[in-house]
């Protein structure tokens, strides 16, 4: 990805994509008719996701969609506050409509964005007051925000060589560290040895360079001696005029689960300590607004009093008066006051942190306090400056830890541990011994009792990843208490600009399958109450059941066990959900139509989790995800339906997050994974060996995942956009050409041509799962983008006949579809077909299947049942019949039915 110039971001991107001409007719979302260009471009309202405006880290980036035909690719954009003040903004394209006009754009603002609400429209952007610049020389990259200057490494161990304010270094030697041990701490011996690996840079690239925002990506592995492992990818974000910078850190596990136990993984900086010990300050956040507020050499609480002014200044972090002005009974004995140089805060569970300190190595630790959920934030420095540092989701992704070492010396060392060395080592071994399931028949029997699809060697963590977010401030002096609270709040909840639901819906993106929340009709209001009930239930269950932890946070459970009053966390395929039946989409569509911050943050955590932990990024299964299970990587079903880009697209386009963009781009060639593994290997009757010219690929869960990656690459005009476009068109054409279209179920795919072989004979092969992993959403988008009537007809047939009677199915296809499930979830296909065909009977069937088939029907009781000990660990409430499969499908059906046939909803459902 080449650097993006300052004022010509959109023009440069448009020029890069000018060679790609598209012959397909652009059509309206969900329509096959060519749409005229909009008469004028309406401005978009932009505001903060949460209250609090920009916060303590000036800088926020958002994505905004535009209706087709509104903005040419060379359009510049301006942001204006409600009071008319122009706000500096940097803009660039995220995606294009097929006619070349802008579909999604990204916009970065800096310190001037201090209003509550803004207006985004075409116009000349205001320049930042303090210009951000990026330089490259001598094997280093220098970023100057106008307030701080960061020198970044392009090789060696130091990702951030220094951060300065003017000529004063505030932090140096920013690097990555990993602690490994070769065996677990089982038993009483505790004799395992640790070894340290340091991050070593393999490459660095400037991805953006101002004028408002700069992004630098640094890649490498952790090395000790001859061994190099644990690939990392770090992005550093800088905004014009800011004294802070953000880090997004990703590592991928490529070790041996039986031999490589991570004892700690962290980010480390050195902080020069220039001030007298009594003018050096330690600040560590506890729960809420709580802080440990201390000096390295404290002068409060002593037997002799240095004076009220001296004591007050030290607590406030201000420079103390000259010691010659103090009570000399203190001044003459300063050497006898201990200097506390080392501090550690550990958060080993979601519910408790402990804080301790010591004077220096070789001496005992002193308890300094504790509490529930720490903010994951601290400060070390003095009156001449220091470093604030924070780790987002600190307690949610426990075990985590903050270390300060050597603050009494010339240089302090700060380590933010993403995995605490004081916790048990990271143990990624498979959780059982196989239970004798050494043949496919035995494994199918196991599936029939625990619902776990087990196969030896498949329950491996090799290739899974995790992304963490960190913030740093290079302060000119010790911040005030209020400033520290604001910085900590920013670490917990970074400021996020968003467009209003009305503007998101007006653009016609994501298939046009959502509309802003409307409670004007009693029947609609009732459904809104039910949607709210379900989201609140899962949000509360995450807290009540403690769905937290480094590898788990962001996921939810699959199925409930009413006998134990517990989710089935320990039973095969009933445990972690791993995106089964699209809860990710339910949450994102729920946000798009409501603008609710709590839904956004819940969906954000899920996107971070499911795109990293549930998907392989290295190895033979790279590009595939793992079916739901007791461990996120445990099940042997490795499939496109979990890794699909359809689950990542909303977050990427709403935030322009580069890491999620990487994840989707890595899937463009994932059609090749069908050479590595056959998803149906255990249940095939006929002989089958993967052939690159005849790969068996399903038109449902398989193709929808491929199509999502190809669509995203095509509309982003990425490096493989031409291939992605061709793959989309050729597979759509050859699915439509099958004797029974989508009802054919699957086809033989040629990797070299990107086409399915057209079967010589019709067959009926329909599964209730085929359309429930993003196929509905992908087809709606593609039909709205590509004028291919045969494909549209094939999809509408699938939509019309899934919920039809067996007699209707037989009359159309010569046989019925057999025993099916998930009719409520499929009601949204009735609604889509009804809207396309303007068919009131189909609209009526959509609502009938929604209310009276399966899932959460009209007879469902929406109530809470209180539970307490000894039946449960933590008192709370339950709804024993709620499952995530039904929740996700009800949510998507409700949202899409309301958008498509809401005007046909029965008055008395």
Please give a quick description of this structure.
This protein has 909 residues and is of the alpha+beta class. Among the domains are: 9-122, no CATH class; 133-297 and 338-428 and 460-492, alpha-galactosidase from lactobacil brevis (Beta-galactosidase, Chain A, domain 5, Distorted Sandwich); 301-337, no CATH class; 656-785, no CATH class.
Low-pLDDT residue spans: 1-39
In total, how many beta strands? 37
What is Rg?
29 Å
Provide the structure class: alpha+beta
Oligomeric state as shown: single chain
Q: Any idea of the CATH class of the domain at 133-297 and 338-428 and 460-492? A: Mainly Beta
- Approximately how much helix is present in the residues? 25-40%
CATH T-level fold name of the domain at 133-297 and 338-428 and 460-492: Beta-galactosidase, Chain A, domain 5
Largest sheet: 20 strands, antiparallel
Number of helices: 21
Fourth-level CATH superfamily of the domain at 133-297 and 338-428 and 460-492? alpha-galactosidase from lactobacil brevis
Q: Give the mean pLDDT.
A: 94
CATH architecture label of the domain at 133-297 and 338-428 and 460-492? Distorted Sandwich
Shape: globular
Query: What amount of the residues lies in strands?
Result: 25-35%
Q: Give the N-to-C terminal Cα separation.
A: 53 Å
Domain PcRGLX/YetA-like N-terminal RIFT barrel: 43-120
Domain PcRGLX/YetA-like C-terminal alpha/alpha toroid: 494-905
Protein name: Tat pathway signal sequence domain protein
Keywords: Signal
SSE inventory with pairings:
Elements: H1 9-16, E1 44-48, E2 60-65, E3 77-81, E4 86-87, E5 89-96, E6 102-109, E7 117-122, E8 133-137, E9 140-144, E10 149-153, E11 160-165, E12 168-181, E13 194-209, E14 213-224, E15 227-239, E16 244-252, E17 261-272, E18 280-285, E19 291-295, H2 308-316, H3 328-331, E20 342-349, E21 352-358, E22 366-371, E23 377-382, E24 385-391, E25 400-405, E26 411-419, H4 440-450, E27 465-475, H5 481-492, E28 497-499, H6 501-506, H7 522-544, E29 560-561, E30 566-567, H8 583-594, H9 597-612, E31 625-626, E32 638-639, H10 640-643, H11 649-655, H12 658-665, H13 673-676, E33 695-698, H14 701-716, H15 721-736, E34 746-750, E35 755-756, H16 775-785, H17 789-802, H18 806-813, H19 823-837, H20 840-852, E36 865-867, E37 876-878, H21 884-901
Antiparallel strand pairs: 1-7, 1-28, 2-6, 3-4, 3-7, 5-6, 8-9, 9-10, 10-11, 11-12, 12-13, 12-17, 13-14, 14-15, 15-16, 16-27, 17-26, 18-19, 18-23, 20-21, 20-25, 21-22, 23-24, 24-27, 25-26, 29-30, 31-32, 33-34, 34-35, 36-37
Helix pairs in contact: 7-21, 8-9, 8-21, 14-15, 14-16, 15-17, 17-19, 19-20, 19-21, 20-21
Keywords: Signal
Protein name: Tat pathway signal sequence domain protein
Domain PcRGLX/YetA-like central beta-sandwich: 133-487
